[in-house]
Design brief:
The complex is a heterodimer of chains A (about 100) and B (about 180). Chain A is built from 3 helices and no strands. Chain B is about 75% helix and about 0% strand. Classes of the chains: A mainly alpha (about 100), B mainly alpha (about 180).
Chain lengths: ~100, ~180
């Protein structure tokens, strides 16, 4: 229990947020929205890390959240640069057009 | 109030809003609205951090995500001039499959995570877990090397983004020669 809230509640909330992100990645074709759904999944995991860090009164979990934020920031910077280059070449950000590696 | 404490009410409202806004991110057609709903979701998650006594992370979360990352998303969407008309749509079948797969995944996770309350808690921790003082001490004592690696990662991401993003006019002239 954290402040009267069961850890199960945080587990359920994080799971639901993660799955909404996963469904978004599967259901959308706009590559920028896919990136945003990945951010949502990262945040669901971050929330659970902080919840367990507070539950166990151990700061390491929050330090890991800190690192995940830094990695997410650099991932978004590089990813959006790649996307803007893709848009410059194909005039579209449709993920179905980026299937040349499939064959 | 109905047998719940104020903290539990705040948790419930924040959780409901976070899930609602997250659903709106996925199911809104206009990309700019998606970004704005994601910012709202991040504010709800920052509220959860405050509820968990992680004040420093709550502030950093708002500054980094709502302040930097989402502004970058908004900037790129406006730069590429995306709106509802240019939005590519999947077929109804693949959307339905995605929702079914998500639902099954939820079922598996709920089944697997049931009863996590009974796990033992190792209570050797420090009381002021989420405060800046304690976080800084742990970060710069136990995790000093990863911290430096992260700074190198951010620098290389910065350089990489610029290298990818710049127009390669010199290479084109090279190939012409």
């Amino acid at each position: 229990m954290i402040n009267g809230i069961s850890i199960n509640m945080y587990l359920m909330l994080s799971t639901v947020l993660f799955i909404i992100g996963a469904v978004g990645v599967m259901a959308r074709r706009n590559t920028i929205i896919l990136f945003m759904c990945i951010e949502l999944m990262l945040n669901a995991v971050n929330l659970l890390l902080v919840a367990f860090s507070t539950l166990h009164a151990d700061t390491s979990g929050q330090v890991f959240v800190f690192f995940i934020m830094a990695v997410a920031a650099s991932e978004v910077a590089v990813g959006l640069a790649i996307l803007s280059m893709v848009y410059r070449n194909t005039k579209s950000i449709d993920s179905e057009l980026l299937s040349k590696l499939k064959h | 109030m109905l047998g719940y404490t104020v903290t539990q009410w705040i948790f419930g409202i924040l959780a409901f809003l976070a899930i609602l806004f997250a659903l709106m991110v996925v199911f809104t057609r206009n990309p700019i609205h998606s970004v704005l709903y994601l910012v709202l979701t991040f504010f709800c998650i920052a509220g959860h951090y405050l509820l968990l006594n992680a004040q420093f992370l709550a502030v950093v979360h708002i500054a980094v995500y709502a302040g930097a990352i989402m502004v970058l998303f908004l900037f790129v969407i406006m730069l590429l001039n995306l709106n509802e008309d240019t939005e590519p749509q999947k077929t109804g079948l693949s959307k339905a499959i995605a929702v079914i797969v998500g639902g099954l995944f939820l079922l598996v996770m709920v089944g697997a995570l049931k009863g996590a309350d009974q796990l033992a808690i190792n209570a050797k921790g420090h009381p002021d877990t989420g405060l800046m003082h304690r976080l800084g001490q742990v970060l710069f004592h136990e995790y000093l090397f990863p911290f430096e690696i992260v700074s190198v990662l951010l620098l290389s991401a910065l350089v990489g983004a610029i290298m990818i993003g710049k127009k390669d006019t010199e290479e084109q002239t090279d190939t012409v020669k």
